Amino acid sequence: MTFLIWRLHRAHAITSAVVIVAVAAVIVPSGIAIANSYHHAVTSCSVSHVGCANIGFTVFGSNGAFTSLVQDLAMAFPLVLGILWGAPLVAREFEAGTEDFAWTQGISRRRWVITNLGWAFLAAAVWGGVLAALFTWWRGPDNAVDGPVKFIYFDVQGVAPIAYTIFAMALGIAAGALFRRVVPAIMTTLVIFPAVRIATALYFRPLFAVSQYVPPTPNGGTPPLSWSLFEDILSSKTEHMIYLPASRFWVVQGTESGIFLALTLALATLTYWQITTREA
Questions:
Q1: What DSSP letter does each residue of 59-86 carry, written as one string?
Q2: Maximum CA pair distance of the chain?
Q3: What's the pLDDT score for residue 141?
Q4: pTM: predicted TM-score of the whole model, two decimal places
Q5: Is 42 exposed, middle or buried (0-12, 13-18, 19+ CB in 10 A)?
Q6: What are the residue ranges spanned by the domains of the chain?
């Protein structure tokens, strides 16, 4: 059964590997250049003691546009996997009418769906983990300056990207099992995945925020590494800030990952039920 799964989905696996290689080919040279600039800046600072407070700007000041581009691409990769691999995985079988052939060759529906889901989720976890590790390495000098727990990079570092990718895969597969057509499955994944991600960022993460009234400062702004959600000058003596402190980075990462994995389990259950109980 495992060999059959590989033969059916090796094109997806090879395409996914090619995408990772292409991403690495784009950001690895940039990462090496940034790392060299960082080490040069650190060496110069240790010798001359000049510019030590602005190492971050010296190294990354001219890379803002490229950094934003890479970050946006990294956030989109889970959706790409869900559309290109998850959505067609089951829908294509029903659309082509080949599922009955598979189930009459000594492979039960239960075994077929469990094996497909298992390998698909493993592939998604590897995909998400590799890309998160690659992006974390690329941001290594920045993490060395300020620390990795910056909410601005919340969606592309840590364990959350792995959970996002598995969820995207599960969503595509479930949509395919429900509609039994590739195009509706792709469109469903394309709409629901961003909607869930946006809703989580807007309504769930703020539950961990800190609301604080403080005297206005000349430079203003929330504490370093935090994520500002709201700032308002109420008077000459009071500023109201709502922000996610860096100390809650991993708490939010773990909780949000748990939510997406729970959604994945629900979608996997829906897929199992659709395939094992619904007639073709």
A1: HHTT-HHHHHHHHHHHHHHHHHHIIIII
A2: 77
A3: 76
A4: 0.83
A5: middle
A6: 2-37+70-202+251-277
